[in-house]
Amino acid sequence: MHLARFARIRLAHLPTPLEPLPRLSEELGVDLWIKRDDCTGLAGGGNKTRKLEFLLGAAFEQDADTLVTQGAVQSNHVRQTAAAAAAHGLACEIILEERTGSKATDYVGNGNVLLDRLFGATLRTVPGGTDMVAELETTADAVRSRGGKPYVIPGGGSNPIGALGYVDCAREIVVQADEMDLEVHRIVTATGSAGTHAGLVAGLAVMGADIPVLGIGVRAPKDRQEANVFKLAEETAA
What we know:
Blueprint (H helix, E strand, L loop, with lengths): L17 E3 L1 H7 L4 E3 L12 H14 L4 E7 L3 H12 L3 E8 L6 H5 L2 H7 L3 E6 L4 H14 L4 E3 L11 H16 L7 E5 L3 H13 L5 E5 L4 H16 L1
Parallel strand pairs: 3-4, 3-6, 4-5, 7-8
Antiparallel strand pairs: 1-2
Helix pairs in contact: 2-3, 2-7, 3-5, 7-8, 8-9
């Protein structure tokens, strides 16, 4: 897979460090290392920056002037999307889903929500359980009706374009491990919208690296999440 054939806007500070965790390793009796994707740099860092490099590239290829995305009220993906839009002169329309039911002031108006607003994004909140795919399309249609050109980014930035960010991360991990003479037996990651997990699986597969990836589910039941990851990994590697 030649990532150079995909449009990409550089946003992240790469490569991120691969660091040992000696005290936790001693406590647990295993040799643990951590891939520091909290250090990607965009708006406080996080894993979504890697995905947004390719998603923003695709948006510019389509001459978009507005990014449209969704997430939970305190979504890190939303924060980083709003920051990427601000950095590159794009408007940003965000739909926030009330998944927790919390009405606490600091939850609904501080943290990432405050940053979203500081980055100039337009926010709209909907109840938990709302059809967010339909809401994305409704918002995109509203942008078009005003003469804008929306680019829709799914929750978590998780589609075959966004997952390319973690195909690249898989390459980065393998290269760093080789340089450190480090044998990696397993990669463990959170898995929610599936893009990070699927990108790692696809990237390792196309490199021929025999490293299993264990996802720790944060939302969907195990069987459904495994199917989501497998489907997205196949689409990403295609």
